[in-house]
Design brief:
This protein is mainly alpha-helical. The protein has helices at 6-27, 57-70, 78-92, 100-106, 115-129, 154-162, 169-188, 202-216, 232-244, 249-258, 263-278, 299-318, and strands spanning 292-293, 297-298. The protein has a two-stranded antiparallel ribbon with strand order 1-2.
Length: 319
C-alpha cells in the first residue's frame, strides 16, 4: 500500500492520539472504583502525580516504538529492539510510574542493552515468578500496526515488542490480535476482532475466540472485567467491551475509564483501537489540545510521528 486515503491516515493518527487521550483521562481514576454511566470522566491529577492531560507510562513506552517505525526500521530487527529498550531505560530513571513487571526486567538488563541480555532478563523474570502476564505489553502495542499495514509479519513484530518485557504467550497473542484489529480498523473503518484470529497459533485460537465472544456479548461493559484488569487478558476484554459498545472514540475511552481499577491502561488500549476505527478527527479538541508528556511533546507532535511511521513503512515496504 503506497498511500493511504485521508480517512485512513486520520485513523492511523487516531491510533496514537486517542490512546494518549485515554491514558491521560484514565490517570486521575487509576485504581479507583467502577463509575456509573452518569459520571463523565474529566482530566485531573493522576494517581502517581501526572498533571491534568499528561499521559503516563502507557503512551511514553509507545513513543520509542513509534520512533523506530518513523525512521523506517523493522521491529523484528534486533538493533531496533535494543534502541527501544535503551530509550525505556533512560525514561524509567525519572518516570513517575513504571509497571512492576517492566521495571523488574529493565533493571536486570545491562547498559547498553543487547538482544541476548534482553531476552534472558525477560525470560528469567517470567521463570522466577511463574508468570509475566501483566497488561504492560498491550498498553504500548498500538503503534506497531502503523509499520505493518501491508506487511505479513505483523504478528511477529507485535510478539517481538511484547516479549522485550512480558514473556508469556498471553501477551504475544493479545498484542498480535490487537495490532491486527487496529490494522483492519485503519484500512476499513470497521471493528472486527473475530476476523483476526489467524494471527494466533492454531492450538490457542479456540480459547481466544471464547474470550473475544465473552467481551462482545451485547450489553457488556468494561466494569464486567474490572477485577484483575491488570492481567493482559482482562485488560484486553475490558478494552474490547469499551470499543464495541461505543458510539465514537470519546465514548470508548470514557467507557473504559468508568470500568475502574487500571483505568489509564485499559483506556489507552481501548483508545488505540477506537482511534483506528473512528479516527483522530472524531475526538473533540477538548481531549487533544491538553495532551502532553514525556519527552515533552504534545498531540500535534504525536500525530506527526504517526504520519512519519506510516510513510516510512510504505517507502520501506516498496523499496
Amino acid at each position: 500500500m503506497a498511500h493511504l486515503s485521508p480517512a485512513q491516515m486520520d485513523r492511523a493518527v487516531g491510533t496514537v492520539i486517542v490512546s494518549a487521550a485515554g491514558d491521560a483521562l484514565g490517570s486521575a481514576y487509576e485504581f479507583g472504583p467502577a463509575l456509573p454511566d452518569e459520571v463523565t470522566p474529566e482530566f485531573g491529577v493522576g494517581h502517581f502525580g501526572h498533571g491534568a492531560g499528561e499521559w503516563t507510562d502507557d503512551t511514553s513506552m509507545a513513543i520509542p516504538v513509534l520512533d523506530e517505525l518513523a525512521a523506517g526500521r523493522r521491529l523484528t530487527d534486533p538493533a531496533a529492539l535494543e534502541r527501544i529498550v535503551a530509550a525505556w531505560q533512560g525514561w524509567a530513571q525519572s518516570a513517575l510510574d513504571v509497571g512492576a513487571q517492566t521495571r523488574h526486567v529493565l533493571g536486570r538488563i545491562p547498559s547498553p542493552p543487547m538482544m541476548d541480555a534482553i531476552r534472558t532478563a525477560a525470560r528469567a523474570v517470567h521463570d522466577e515468578t511463574g508468570r509475566s502476564g501483566g497488561n504492560g505489553s498491550l498498553m504500548r502495542t498500538g503503534p506497531v500496526a502503523l509499520g505493518y499495514l501491508d506487511r505479513p509479519d505483523l504478528a511477529a513484530a507485535a510478539a517481538a515488542v511484547a516479549q522485550l518485557t512480558h514473556w508469556e504467550d498471553d501477551n504475544v497473542d493479545a498484542c498480535a490480535l490487537w495490532c491486527a484489529a487496529i490494522r483492519h480498523g485503519i484500512l476499513t473503518g470497521e471493528l472486527d476482532m473475530c476476523g483476526q484470529l489467524d494471527v494466533v497459533p492454531q492450538d490457542r485460537r479456540d480459547r481466544w475466540a471464547a474470550l473475544i465472544d465473552e467481551a462482545l456479548v451485547s450489553g457488556r461493559h468494561p466494569r464486567d472485567f474490572r477485577d484483575a484488569n491488570g492481567w493482559v487478558v482482562r485488560a484486553f476484554q475490558g478494552a474490547l467491551a469499551a470499543v464495541s459498545g461505543a458510539t465514537g472514540p470519546l465514548d470508548a475511552i470514557e467507557r473504559a475509564v468508568r470500568g475502574g481499577n487500571d483505568t489509564d491502561t485499559v483506556a489507552a488500549i481501548a483508545g488505540s483501537l477506537a482511534g483506528a476505527v473512528w479516527g483522530a478527527d472524531a475526538l473533540p479538541d477538548s481531549h487533544t489540545t491538553v495532551l502532553h508528556g514525556w519527552p515533552g511533546i504534545d498531540a500535534a507532535e504525536l500525530a506527526r510521528r504517526a504520519r512519519l511511521a506510516v510513510g516510512a513503512s510504505a517507502v520501506s515496504a516498496w523499496g
